[in-house]
């Protein structure tokens, strides 16, 4: 199945959670040092090479200029095309001891050129999807992205060592997207990958704002993946919260800790962590290692805890049914999953709340409801149930209410620091 | 809610990211904020090529203000290039243009980016690595108030 899936399967057999950073540096030597530090740290890891934003949007001239002028120090990630396949192959070979697999993360709606380079360089795995890397990340029309991604999948599937591909559909906009839609999109993108020849995939889901709801979502994701991906080797990847992050170290680590427990209790195989530094800047190598080792320690503890105490339970909000309805309503609209996705977005049967892309209907709205869960406040054209009016007073969405919802986790997790400071300081 | 003492006009504001930045929430928030203040917003969305931004500011589409919002750390590079091009264009040379967000990747070491961007032609710069976000937002609203007090009203036929 390839080194990436092999490593995940081996970890699962040992009941270990695979942890992975979000890491990308412009300078080749720093990228190598980062991969080595991740490989050799005290955790079960896979490596990450996150590309810079110029490379993501296909502006390789700017990436080359930044390499020439400052050696890449000014870039917010690794410029894959500017370095070229040979340099990438050498980089991967130099860190490949013990079959250490590396995933390239790119965020590009039209990644065919990147896929060519990745296949030529022998990259183990990458991620994205026709919807998840189109609607939130650019201006490319959805049908064009779907065509491009179809060719990418076929290229990745026909490579001498077929690549592993992860959906990003479970992470749309990072926050404020109700989980039923995240689950539906992740499954639909995985179906798309399968239809275009891939046989080793993973399905993503990003931690949201409520443990019970997230557990319910991950159970639904596994159930629907099993139904829709016959003959495919698959696992689930959880992302530590991708929205506005706590500002305090204690708040950040608590949120990371909760994502680890969520992964363990839901049977998730792989976790992509965040670091406390990320709220302010791109984290250093040491900060990534610290987060990975912390996550690994919590994962082992959580697995041990579960043997003696009751694990947290999923909520019962009907999430599986809603996700299934979204998937079925989409698949009715086209002969292939790709055509169905394009048609579903054109008709608003799929509609990502707050997404500004012109191929997204933009009629649906989501809120954090009185239970602290994500809920629909406006369904648009989607077959979903409107439950919530949201935190605070009902009425139109204001900038202040949006900020309050976006900062929900930041506030919740930083509160612990505030209270802790009160308890520590003499009255 | 404070009332601005001077009679102000609604502004036509074009909100945009820069070419390499795909972050969206900052743009959604800015649009709501500006609309609540009574202004008319055109939101260009994420990752606009420079030409898209320039074209959206020409002729009948010309706004009273162009607001670039970016948080991916490339703002100092993309913004610099964009504003230089924009200032070379006679039609756009006098357009009020501001940029705000996380403009560099080096945190506190980016404290001189603001001046560099102002020198290159920005009307105002709101750099999160130089000032806390809350104060920047207040500064931005103050800037809008001043501009709204001085800008000519939108002609009735132009809306």
UniProtKB/TrEMBL annotation, chain B:
<dbReference type="Pfam" id="PF02310">
    <property type="entry name" value="B12-binding"/>
</dbReference>
<dbReference type="InterPro" id="IPR006158">
    <property type="entry name" value="Cobalamin-bd"/>
</dbReference>
<protein>
    <recommendedName>
        <fullName>B12-binding domain-containing protein</fullName>
    </recommendedName>
</protein>
<dbReference type="InterPro" id="IPR036724">
    <property type="entry name" value="Cobalamin-bd_sf"/>
</dbReference>
<feature type="domain" description="B12-binding">
    <location>
        <begin position="10"/>
        <end position="147"/>
    </location>
</feature>
